[in-house]
Amino acid sequence: MSDPVLKLTGISKTYNEGEPGEIRVLRDLDLSVGRGEIVGLVAPSGSGKSTLLHIAGLLDSTDSGTVEIEGQDATRLGDRARTRLRRSTIGFVYQFHHLLPEFTASENIELPQRAAGVGTSDARARARELLSSVGLADRMGHRPSEMSGGEQQRVAFCRALANNPGLLLADEPTGNLDPDTSEQVFAVLMGLVRDTGLSAVIATHNLELAGRMDRTLRLTSGAVQPV
User: Fold this and answer.
1) Is Transport one of the keywords (predicted)?
2) Measured between alpha carbons, how far is 2 from 62 in angstroms, rounded to an integer?
């Protein structure tokens, strides 16, 4: 694969290493995601998919192996440099939206931009643009408690894209929604990713949803295999 946005090589991760109850979650795992490619990651609960996404997103360390983001070996970077790379390059979406309840939809999207040095007016304009793209232009001033679960998750998608990342990592992004809402919200997510040309790894237990992506991988026994 030429010019991968994400490249994991020889990734291993063990918890409680050396203790009787140690758990080896990832075993010499390799994964590459090309520019503009959407990869579905299918895995049962407890298989290590969240650990894999946290390592790919520079939120967790590895026991061995390398993590390259946009051609840069992140395993060689210090904490500050890793934080800068994560903030500028990677967007995250989780099963639960994790919106800040005291802030409006717009403010939740503005905050990561302000942390990256974007001015107030530009951050607000970007929030308005993103919310309009997911059909929530009339919800800019609403707080999370004033929105439905599907609306909250769409705001979370917008927040993940606020700083124009090149890579999106999503961990069961519709897993907390009912089937009908899940279908609608997933379609919004796929539209956002396609329209922006993002690379993405989207973990889901739903094989039908995973089948709509460019490639589907199954995480089993600590490694990924094509489905």
Assistant:
1) yes
2) 24
Burial of 179 (0-12, 13-18, 19+ CB in 10 A): exposed
| 190 Rama class: left (phi>0) / alpha (psi -120 to 50) / beta | alpha
Instruction: Report d(CA 186, CA 164) in Å as an integer.
Output: 20
Neighbours of 168 (CB within 10 A): 24
> 109 vs 15, 66, 100, 150, 161, CA distance in Å?
34, 31, 10, 16, 9
For residues 111 and 103, is the Cβ–Cβ distance under 8 A?
yes
Residue listed under structure tokens 């994560």: 86
Q: Is the domain covering 4-97+158-226 a CATH 3.40.50.1820 domain?
A: no
pLDDT, the chain, mean: 90
pTM for the full predicted model: 0.89
pLDDT digits (tens, 9 = 90+) for 85-118: 998 899 999 878 889 999 999 999 999 999 889 9
Q: How many residues does the chain have?
A: 227
Question: Residues near 48 by Cβ (< 8 Å), separated by ≥ 6?
Answer: 13, 25, 26, 219, 222
Q: Which residue has the higher pLDDT, 9 or 18?
A: 9
| Positive/negative CA dihedral, 202, 132, 161, 175 | negative
pLDDT at 199 over 60: yes
